[in-house]
Write a structure and sequence with these properties.
Blueprint: E1 3-16, E2 38-48, E3 53-58, H1 64-77, E4 81-86, H2 90-93, H3 95-98, E5 106-110, H4 121-132, H5 140-153
Parallel strand pairs: 1-4, 4-5
Antiparallel strand pairs: 1-2, 2-3
Helix pairs in contact: 4-5
């Protein structure tokens, strides 16, 4: 099968809605009531052996329907057959996604459980994590702007080194 290899993975980033620290005068006991509420965004990312990259952001948990539409969008993007490399996430194993394997232009390879080091997309998440960690964002908009800036600067790892 002569196909384009596409590796897909998901990441979730969150922003604390309320501050986590407060200053009080010396000698007094600080008291800050927090709800623990967070706003967050999920990303589906895909990279190809040719260095192409695709990202889609959701303000809800990734579902099988999200994954299905993401994969179908990749099918529309490429004229070649696709070999899609996925991890064992439940939304990738749901019938909405696995039923796509019936298509003639699409085949799936599922990575072994607990082996993120085998998925080259994980290398994209590391610089993203570095760009947004240890920073306080006042809003989800600030976080998504930082994510977009980090994604624009990403260098895509060589997929063929993984297989």
């Amino acid at each position: 099968m002569d196909a384009t290899v596409v590796c897909i993975d998901q990441s979730k980033k969150s922003v604390q809605v309320e501050p986590r620290a407060a200053r009080k005068p010396r000698g007094t006991r600080p008291s800050v009531k927090l709800s623990g509420q967070r706003d967050w965004t999920c990303l589906l990312g895909a990279i190809t052996e040719d260095g192409d990259r695709f990202f889609s952001r959701f303000e809800e948990y990734v579902t099988a329907e999200h994954a299905k539409h993401f994969i179908l969008a990749l099918c529309n993007e490429f004229e070649d057959d696709l070999l899609v490399v996925l991890d064992g996430a439940p939304y990738f194993q749901a019938s909405a996604v696995t039923d796509l394997a019936a298509r003639d232009d699409l085949a799936f390879v599922t990575l072994p459980s607990y082996s993120p080091e085998l998925n080259p997309v994980e290398e994209c998440w590391r610089p993203l994590q570095k760009a947004v960690s240890n920073r306080f964002f006042d809003s989800l908009d600030e976080l998504t702007t930082a994510i977009d800036i980090a994604l624009d600067k990403l260098s895509v790892p060589k997929v063929s080194n993984y297989f």
